[in-house]
Amino acid sequence: MERSSSRFKALAITAGFSFWFFIISNSFGLFSLEIFLVFIILTITVTQIFAVKLSKGLDILAIVNTKIFLGILFIFVISVYGLIFRLLRIDPLRLKQSDNSYWLEMEHLKLDRIFKQY
């Protein structure tokens, strides 16, 4: 599996931190362009210095995110919906077996409508 470069991951972290710095400082009414630019420069410098270590940490975080977090999400969201649908006997795919046929009844269309579909 080909992974992103450590420098690119450091820039992505800088972009994320800068975004949240902007949102939080703006919501408190403390936003200043000079402070924002200093924050971006400091964040770029620090993340580029520790880019390799950050990259290793982000790889571990990615494994945790994909394996554990998404597994928990599946258990608590998808499984709960499945149980609720079974208890309420909701069949969105119409998989209930019937003795006659699986075909759905359809209204009869006029021949003119078949040729003029749009």
Please supply descriptive tags for the structure shown above.
mainly alpha; 118 residues; 0% strand
Description:
By secondary structure, the protein is mostly helical. Helix 1 runs antiparallel to helix 2 (33-49) and helix 1 (6-27) packs across helix 3. The two termini are 47 Å apart. It has one domain (6-90). The mean pLDDT is 85. It has helices at residues 6-27, 33-49, 51-87, 111-115.
Radius of gyration (CA) equals 27 Å
So what's the overall shape?
A: elongated
Low-confidence stretches: none
User: Helical residue percent?
Assistant: 55-70%
H/I helix tally: 4
Please describe the topology of this protein.
Layout: H1 6-27, H2 33-49, H3 51-87, H4 111-115
Helix pairs in contact: 1-2, 1-3
Brief overview, please?
The protein has 118 residues and is mainly alpha-helical. The protein has one domain.
